[in-house]
């Protein structure tokens, strides 16, 4: 399947087969075009360009850059791990502009938008939706050069009613399993200001200082908050391979509710196998 194909084939276990432990290959409609197969509430980014703009702004806040040359040429770039190259092709399809290339000496790909029409398209999509001060300053400067009227951003951009956090999490978020069954959703930043907005907007999580890299970590480990995020991601789907992780986490939550993780449960091996496969997949990256 080529990287530009907008239909992902995921190994998905149906709800009816969770107890039997069987799996089947299911073609899952890509959230870019048809919304998540897990819920009818999921928005389609190609049909709701306002929410796609929020997603794109969150992704740029996390992993994007706005460059202005000495000659006042503007380029907008987003870099993702090589496993998410297909996501860049999805973005190119929606934006309608961009060149995708492999980054030298790193396991990453980049989309670069540098035509005037393409830059104006992106500026229009993300107008009023960025949240990081450095990106907002660059955005305003780019708007001044290309005649786009900037809209003031609002901290309400980071809330369960917009796709901003989905874009941000696709860029800077991480899903992990600590110890045996402790599920963790986290995101890191050098400054805690943005993480405070996330914590306030979603009314969950904790923020810690991590001296190993002199930055801050927003972290969620309690089941109630994780379920809140899972519902959010159903409404505003992730576009990277973390969408596969969401499917796995939903299964693990179900298995824990059924007490499969308890020491003497006869089906404990099923949740153990799922956790082992999840950790093995993440270890490849």
Automatic annotation (TrEMBL):
Residues 56-143, 166-252 form the Homing endonuclease LAGLIDADG domain. Residues 11-27 have a biased composition (Polar residues). InterPro entries: Homing_endonucl, LAGLIDADG_dom, LAGLIDADG_Endonuclease. GO terms for molecular function: endonuclease activity. One of its GO terms (cellular component) is mitochondrion. Residues 11-31 are annotated as: Disordered. Keywords: Endonuclease, Hydrolase, Mitochondrion, Nuclease. It holds the Pfam family LAGLIDADG_1. The keyword Nuclease applies. The keyword Transmembrane does not apply. PANTHER family: INTRON-ENCODED DNA ENDONUCLEASE AI5 BETA (PTHR36181:SF3), INTRON-ENCODED ENDONUCLEASE AI3-RELATED (PTHR36181). This is LAGLIDADG endonuclease.
């Amino acid at each position: 399947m080529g990287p530009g194909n907008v239909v992902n084939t995921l190994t998905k276990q149906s709800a009816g087969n969770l107890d039997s432990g069987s799996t089947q290959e299911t073609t899952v409609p890509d959230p870019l075009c048809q919304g998540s197969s897990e819920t009818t509430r999921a928005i389609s980014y190609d049909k709701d360009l306002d929410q796609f703009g929020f997603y794109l702004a969150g992704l740029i806040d996390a992993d994007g850059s706005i460059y202005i040359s000495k000659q006042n040429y503007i380029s907008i770039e987003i870099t993702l791990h090589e496993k998410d190259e297909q996501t860049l092709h999805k973005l190119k399809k929606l934006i309608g502009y961009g060149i995708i290339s492999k980054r030298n000496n790193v396991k990453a790909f980049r989309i670069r938008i540098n035509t005037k029409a393409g830059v104006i398209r992106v500026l229009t999509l993300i107008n009023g939706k960025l949240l990081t001060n450095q990106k907002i300053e660059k955005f305003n400067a780019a708007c001044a050069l290309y005649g786009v009227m900037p809209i003031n951003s609002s901290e309400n951009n980071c809330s369960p009613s917009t796709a901003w956090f989905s874009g941000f999490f696709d860029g800077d978020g991480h899903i992990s399993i600590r110890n045996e069954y402790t599920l963790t959703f986290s995101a890191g930043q050098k400054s805690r200001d943005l993480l405070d907005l996330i914590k306030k907007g979603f009314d969950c999580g904790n923020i810690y200082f991590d001296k190993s890299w002199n930055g801050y970590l927003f972290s969620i480990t309690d089941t109630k908050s994780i379920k809140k995020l899972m519902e959010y991601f159903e409404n505003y789907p992730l576009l990277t391979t973390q969408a596969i992780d969401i499917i796995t986490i939903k299964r693990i939550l179900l298995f824990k509710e059924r007490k499969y993780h308890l020491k003497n449960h006869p089906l404990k091996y099923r949740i153990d196998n799922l956790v082992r496969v999840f950790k093995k997949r993440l270890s490849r990256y």
